[in-house]
Design a protein that fits this description.
7-stranded mixed sheet; FAD/NAD(P)-binding domain; 6-stranded mixed sheet; 19 strands; alpha/beta
């Protein structure tokens, strides 16, 4: 089988590698002149770690990262609401630089024999198995995959209803230099909230860098500014000045959006990752479920009696996990960023209460507890 993939991001590279390792021919197209991953840091939970292990990319991806044992949340009064948030059971969490993870997957894809074409923009696709290139040519395939992100050109070619929903909040993502005296973040993810809906995450991702995410409602113009308005953030988080003062213009900021596609596949065309199901990053699982999805797609198609049977099995098994994660991530954003300020103490009680139930936390982080590498019945 020959597969043509649009988009050499995390989802596309995972699917390409998983297909190639099963003996299929794969070409992946990247519109930019070089492979690169936009972003700063990334959470790599148990679900994605198992995929990386299976592909042979694990050591490459996490060797310079930070094994995290606690995700702490503190409220507007600096009270500790959670410690070990969604870290129950044997679930592992590494936080790494996003570029490191991307490079590890790209390296494994090449080792598997994937053909990676840069400067190769895609204009669309057909359901009978052709990738339509921006230069007017077409690339026939047994399976065409659109893994080209939130702004997917391939998604417009997919029959059915495709809905992009702005979520009224957003965030900036930055890397800052790590110092030897940053001891409070060792093996920890720290998140702080204000009454007005701002959130700051302080996440160690390598010996050299800390990942800062700054989230707020889109109506908060100073909070949404990129480059970041450091003075404004220090005013609301004075206890984090040691980190905020190191912010540079090295990141990106965007409004969070949910993408819901009626169909993930029709004929010989499939959508993968953010192109099919982008979500807010509030649970740190957007990339994780995309990596899972790419791996499961390759497995189901390879093991299916027909292409249609494999694609249908992929959706049946994985779509519920993705949609639950998307729903809980949206819920987290509403609580953390758009909760009424006068009821901030009630919000703290709610988050504290949620953390008392390991079963509920596992349900929220359902993706981390689903293993797409296990044997299929």
């Amino acid at each position: 089988m020959h597969i043509e993939i649009s988009g050499a991001g995390l989802a596309g590279l995972t699917a390409a590698t998983a297909f190639a390792q099963r003996g299929h021919s794969v070409t992946i197209h990247e519109k930019d002149s070089a492979l690169r991953e936009i972003g700063a840091g990334i959470f790599v939970w148990e679900n994605a770690l198992r995929v990386l292990e299976n592909l042979g990319a694990y050591e490459d991806a996490v060797h310079n990262g930070e094994p995290n044992k606690h995700w702490e949340i503190r409220d507007h009064r600096a009270r500790l609401l959670q410690s070990g948030w969604m870290m129950g059971g044997d679930s592992r969490l590494f936080t790494v630089e996003r570029g490191t993870l991307h490079a590890a997957l790209a390296r494994q894809a090449r080792l598997a024999g994937v053909e990676i074409l840069t400067d190769s923009p895609v204009a669309g696709a057909t359901t009978d198995g052709a990738l339509l290139m921006a230069d007017g040519t077409s690339r026939p395939a047994d399976l065409v995959i659109g893994a080209d992100g939130v702004g997917s050109a391939v998604r417009a070619s997919m029959p059915g209803r495709n809905v992009v929903t702005p979520l009224a909040d957003g965030g900036g993502r930055y890397l800052i230099k790590r110092r030897s005296d940053d001891v409070e973040i060792r093996n920890k993810c720290l998140e702080y909230w204000t009454r007005e809906g701002r959130r700051v995450g302080v996440i160690p991702v390598s010996p050299e860098h800390i990942y800062l995410y700054l989230c707020c409602p889109t109506r908060d113009t100073r909070g949404s500014a990129c480059p970041p308005d450091v003075v404004s953030w220090v005013e609301q988080f004075p206890h984090l000045e040691t980190y905020l003062a190191r912010l540079e213009d090295n990141g990106t900021a965007s409004e969070f959006r949910d993408i819901n596609c009626e169909n993930w596949h029709v004929g010989k065309l499939a959508l993968l990752g953010d192109a099919a199901h982008a979500m807010s990053p509030n649970l740190g699982q957007g990339a994780g479920v995309s990596v899972q999805s790419g791996f499961m797609l390759a497995r189901c198609v390879h093991e299916g009696k027909t292409l249609e049977a494999g694609l249908s099995e992929w959706v049946r098994r994985h779509r519920p996990v993705v949609e639950a994660t998307q729903r809980f991530s949206r819920f987290y954003g509403r609580i953390g960023t758009r909760w009424p300020a006068p009821l901030a103490d009630l919000r703290s009680l709610l988050i504290w209460s949620l953390g008392r139930s390991v079963a509920l936390q596992n349900r929220i982080n359902v993706a981390a507890h689903s293993d797409v590498t296990a044997a299929l019945p």
